[in-house]
Amino acid sequence: MDEVQVVVAHSERATLRVGEVFLKVDADRSRMDAEVEAMALAPVPTPRVLWHRPPALALAALPGRALGRLGEPCTSSPAAWAAAGAALRRLHDAPLPPRPGRAGRSTEELTAELDHECAWLVAQNVLPAALVTRNREVAEAALRPWTPAFTHGDLQIAHVFVDGDEVTGILDWSEAGQGDALYDLATLALGHEEHLADLLAGYGKEVDLDVLHAWWSLRSLLGIRWLLEHGFDPHMPGGEVDVLKALM
């Protein structure tokens, strides 16, 4: 008999795996509807939808394995990283989806959220003030005008599956929509800078590295409180805090 494996679980959503089926439960119906819509529109491999009955969504498992995981050494080949870059370029070049995504928040909204989180990190003694201040300065480069693209919005390295050097699918599209393409690139390469050149070679388009680094700072600063409050560890080796230290 297949066992039930808890892939991820917190107060917003949970994902379980039973054999070759993933079952996602999300308290926000609109987020799940957006995920199904984005997978239907995306010009890259995505999991097959078995059924969709809010608040649950059943997806077929993807072949292969995750490209890597944040905080762990990555053994995927340079060619696999290049293939991920090429898949991401196809997504970003596709016709825009109908709604904005997480990567499409306005500069004003991001600035207000960033300042609020930086103040909290210092007030709660989560991080040294100098570390927060320096990375807030780095993050400023991401707060600029951008051309909307079809973005995934949460393209963590564990959401890209590969078999050998081929991308077999991309998971977790609940944050997808119109947004800044560099947000996706930065999220995928977060904590794995040693593979950035291979990723960008596959992407095949010139990228402003200052903006990409800025997204590393911004995403890490915004994510630390959420991670702590949901039982995750941003201080793990190679995680968000290490990313911030590397950008000092």
Topology:
Elements: E1 4-9, E2 13-18, E3 21-26, H1 29-41, E4 49-53, E5 56-60, E6 65-66, H2 78-93, H3 107-123, H4 129-139, E7 149-151, E8 160-163, E9 166-170, E10 177-179, H5 181-189, H6 196-203, H7 209-229, H8 240-246
Antiparallel strand pairs: 1-2, 2-3, 3-5, 4-5, 6-8, 7-10, 8-9
Helix pairs in contact: 2-6, 3-4, 3-7, 4-7, 5-7, 7-8
Explain how this protein is built:
InterPro entries: AGP_Transferase, Aminoglycoside_PTrfase, Kinase-like_dom_sf. Residues 13-205 form the Aminoglycoside phosphotransferase domain. There is one protein chain. With 248 residues, the chain is of the alpha+beta class. The chain has one domain (63-246): Aminoglycoside 3'-phosphotransferase, Chain: A, domain 2 (Alpha-Beta Complex), CATH 3.90.1200.10. The chain is built from 8 helices and 10 strands. The strands form 3 sheets. The protein has a 5-stranded antiparallel sheet with strand order 1-2-3-5-4. The protein has a 3-stranded antiparallel sheet with strand order 6-8-9, covered by helices on one side. A two-stranded antiparallel sheet has the order 7-10. β4 and β5 (56-60) form a beta hairpin. 38% of the residues are buried. The model has no long low-confidence stretch (mean pLDDT 93).
